[in-house]
Design the sequence.
């Protein structure tokens, strides 16, 4: 078995692991990334594309902002359509200057990969049998296999950035961790196409036929979603059927001018809310989907992972720059405060904008009564400046919390 040494072992080479690795490198903290699949596979994952103000600032801090600044599209507002009636939430005005940036997760991941490669930082792709050991001791390590050779990676700390199905969360004993989950009775059918966006800003649409979202990846590439039953399969939906249904749910003026085209990618994503407590066990820290999943309504998934990275970076910098090892005990508490806020916001947005039918959030409530409550809720918040400010402040992302 070959022995390697580093300060921080990062399990998972997706955007959160890569961002953490790049930031740690910037501040002189050695790290090694272990990823179970190939780099090309990681880049093939079609995911979110809205970056909160804080996330965009982290990208700048990491020094990989060049393409984001030139190709990303700054959004100063977001549109809501409730049964055809449009309301704009002015993010910049209502938050005192904050914005979001439309820049795809694939692009961020590619930028981070290229920066890591340029700096010649160690990354082991196709690493199998990854297993953390002795995470509560002062000498944790990770074993893995790559290219038929077995490795032992000795480190000070382990960052588990390996997603919901990864090994990191399972390393925390079952009698220590508590998991909370809500599975929603519908999914999002998403279609990616090389057509100009139908709107300069995102449109969240509530309609009696179901929710719809008009999003974008670039001035020439669009991403659209419609709410569908969990029983639906991608094969049930031709491109033509998708476009027809989408137009029914969006405002008529938008639908009339929408350009359509063949899909590049089409998939159905189930929706769930999930949180694991604690997010830390000894010298193991959970980051991103390893600890939490949110419904995509509100664009919090990737941004929440960035919040974890920001907190863990502060912890590790204090450890290595000031010798304060006690500060690691703040990670889970600080991260979970942000997690639960984002979970609540995503649940709230999902509850207001989707049609639950006979499977509402509250099984004891008459479905028609619940629908009227949620329609009243969204109308109230959109018709009031203070209500729109509540949405705007959370949509752009709350400030990152400092250590005590």
Sequence:
């Amino acid at each position: 078995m070959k022995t390697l040494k580093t300060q921080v072992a990062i399990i998972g080479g997706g955007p959160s692991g890569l961002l953490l690795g790049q930031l740690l490198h910037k501040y002189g903290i050695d790290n090694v990334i272990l990823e179970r699949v190939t780099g090309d596979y990681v880049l093939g994952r079609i995911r979110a594309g809205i970056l909160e103000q804080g996330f965009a600032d982290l990208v700048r801090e990491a020094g990989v902002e060049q393409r984001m600044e030139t190709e990303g599209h700054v959004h100063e507002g977001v549109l809501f359509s409730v049964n055809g009636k449009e309301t704009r939430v002015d993010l910049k005005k209502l938050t005192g200057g904050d914005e979001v940036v439309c820049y795809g997760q694939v692009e961020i991941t590619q930028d981070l990969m290229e920066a890591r490669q340029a700096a010649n930082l160690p990354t082991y792709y196709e690493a199998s049998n990854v297993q953390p050991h002795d995470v509560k001791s002062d000498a944790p390590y990770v074993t893995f296999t790559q290219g038929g050779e077995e490795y032992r990676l000795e480190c000070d700390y382990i960052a588990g950035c390996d997603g919901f199905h990864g090994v990191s969360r399972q390393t925390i004993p079952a009698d220590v961790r508590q998991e909370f989950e809500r599975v929603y009775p519908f999914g999002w059918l998403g279609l990616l196409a090389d057509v100009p966006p139908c709107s300069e800003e995102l449109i969240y649409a509530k309609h009696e036929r179901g929710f719809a979202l008009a999003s974008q990846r670039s001035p020439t590439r669009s991403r659209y979603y419609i709410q569908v039953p969990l029983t639906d399969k991608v094969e049930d939906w031709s491109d033509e059927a998708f476009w027809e249904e989408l137009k029914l749910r969006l405002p008529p003026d938008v639908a009339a001018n929408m350009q359509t085209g063949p899909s590049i990618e089409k998939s159905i994503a189930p929706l769930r809310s999930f949180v694991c407590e604690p997010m830390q066990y000894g010298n193991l820290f959970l980051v991103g989907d390893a600890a939490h999943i949110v419904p995509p309504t509100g664009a919090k998934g990737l941004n929440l992972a960035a919040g974890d990275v920001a907190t863990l970076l502060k912890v590790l910098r204090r450890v290595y720059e000031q010798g304060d090892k006690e500060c690691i005990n703040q990670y889970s508490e600080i991260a979970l405060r942000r997690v639960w806020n984002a979970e609540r916001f995503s649940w709230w947005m999902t509850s207001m904008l989707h049609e639950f039918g006979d499977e509402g959030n509250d099984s004891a409530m008459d479905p028609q009564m619940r629908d009227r409550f949620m329609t009243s809720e969204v109308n109230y918040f959109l018709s009031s400046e203070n209500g729109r400010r509540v949405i705007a402040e959370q949509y752009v992302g709350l400030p990152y919390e400092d250590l005590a």
About this structure: The mean pLDDT is 94.
